[in-house]
Automatic annotation (TrEMBL):
<dbReference type="Pfam" id="PF00089">
    <property type="entry name" value="Trypsin"/>
</dbReference>
<protein>
    <submittedName>
        <fullName>Trypsin-like serine protease</fullName>
    </submittedName>
</protein>
<keyword id="KW-0720">Serine protease</keyword>
<feature type="domain" description="Peptidase S1">
    <location>
        <begin position="9"/>
        <end position="200"/>
    </location>
</feature>
<keyword id="KW-0378">Hydrolase</keyword>
<dbReference type="InterPro" id="IPR018114">
    <property type="entry name" value="TRYPSIN_HIS"/>
</dbReference>
<dbReference type="InterPro" id="IPR050430">
    <property type="entry name" value="Peptidase_S1"/>
</dbReference>
<dbReference type="InterPro" id="IPR033116">
    <property type="entry name" value="TRYPSIN_SER"/>
</dbReference>
<dbReference type="InterPro" id="IPR009003">
    <property type="entry name" value="Peptidase_S1_PA"/>
</dbReference>
<dbReference type="GO" id="GO:0004252">
    <property type="term" value="F:serine-type endopeptidase activity"/>
</dbReference>
<comment type="similarity">
    <text>Belongs to the peptidase S1 family.</text>
</comment>
<keyword id="KW-1015">Disulfide bond</keyword>
<dbReference type="InterPro" id="IPR001314">
    <property type="entry name" value="Peptidase_S1A"/>
</dbReference>
<dbReference type="InterPro" id="IPR001254">
    <property type="entry name" value="Trypsin_dom"/>
</dbReference>
<dbReference type="InterPro" id="IPR043504">
    <property type="entry name" value="Peptidase_S1_PA_chymotrypsin"/>
</dbReference>
<keyword id="KW-0645">Protease</keyword>
<dbReference type="GO" id="GO:0006508">
    <property type="term" value="P:proteolysis"/>
</dbReference>
Length: 200
């Protein structure tokens, strides 16, 4: 993964925090709604907040003109379980509207269906060089079709891949991916200067 450059080029990206520590990524949508992973929304999550307009988490919110929002409610997909990964999505409602400055669109299924379309995975998760990073990272991953994905990752894919709710993106040769700490964060497609949320 590489440092996001320039900083703040992905306004929808947020840091999902527990007790003032980054635990997962997320995407801000419609001002007061974060889209993140269901598994980031369960278990022991204390004093949840969402940090908006952040790049370097070692800096203060004031340094980066960032904001911190309390979480009013978490809505976890009704079909999500620890064993059913195909519905690993949750909505967090924020206490104060941020305003829709993030320019985030939701994909209607038309963008992520062409092999080798490059998608951007974003996060503050672990990298090969270091555990967790304070600087927001990105990696470009090509989309590839469900049939090829199932073939390449058999038999693992039978347990984790749901073609109705998930897509497959990655480098068959390896070496590039998101990692622990990036969970819940976006996989973006870009079109006409807009960011389309493809997957978490």
């Amino acid at each position: 993964m590489d440092d996001v450059n320039p900083a703040f080029k992905y306004p929808p990206m947020v840091s999902t925090q527990s007790n003032n520590r980054h635990v997962c990524g997320g995407s801000l949508w419609n001002g007061n709604t974060e889209i993140t992973a269901a598994h980031c929304s369960t278990g022991i999550m204390i004093d949840n907040t969402v940090k908006v307009h952040r790049h370097d988490l070692s800096k203060t919110n004031e340094d980066e003109d960032g904001k911190v929002y309390r979480v009013l409610a978490k809505i976890i997909h009704i079909k999500y379980t620890r064993w059913e990964k195909g519905y690993d999505i949750a909505i967090w409602k924020l206490a104060t509207p941020e305003g829709n400055r993030t320019n985030l669109e939701l994909d209607d299924g038309s963008l992520g269906n062409v092999d080798n379309t490059l998608l951007a995975g974003i996060g503050w998760g672990e990298t090969k060089e270091r555990p967790r990073t304070n600087i927001l990272q990105e990696v470009k991953l090509p989309f590839y079709n469900h049939e090829q994905c199932m073939k390449d990752y058999e038999p693992l894919s039978r347990d984790i891949q749901n073609s109705k709710t998930q897509i497959c993106a990655g480098c068959p040769e390896g070496g590039k991916d998101t990692c622990q700490g990036d969970s819940g964060g976006p996989l973006f497609a870009m079109k006409d200067e807009k960011k389309f949320l493809m997957e978490l």
